[in-house]
Amino acid sequence: MDAVRRRLAEERAQTLRRLADLTDDYGAVVAASRDTNADDEHDPEGATIAFERSQVGALVRQARRHLEEIDAAERRLDEGTYGTCERCGEPIAEGRLEARPVARLCIDCASSV
To answer: N or C: which end of the chain has fewer CB within 10 A?
Structure first.
C-alpha cells in the first residue's frame, strides 16, 4: 500500500501544480478582460474572453474535484476499503487502479453508470 500512497501523493502534487497554473491563467484572462473595454455582447473579442474565462474556470473546478477524489482514496486506504468497488463490493482490477488510482468502482459498475 506504500506504493499506492506514493502514487496518490504524486497525483496530488501534479494536480496542485495544474491548479496553480490554471489559477494563474484565470487571473491573466480576468486581467485581460479588465484591460480591454470588451462588451461580451457586441465586441467580437468579448465572446472569446468570456469563453476563455469559462473554460479555465471549468478546468479549475475539475482540478479541485480531483483533489477531493484523492482525499477520498486516501481515506479508503486508511479504512482498508481501497481497491474494493463501492457498488458491488468486488475487487477493482489492478490495471484500472494503476490507470486511475482514485477509482471507486470496478470497470463493470463504472460502465453501467
So the answer is: C
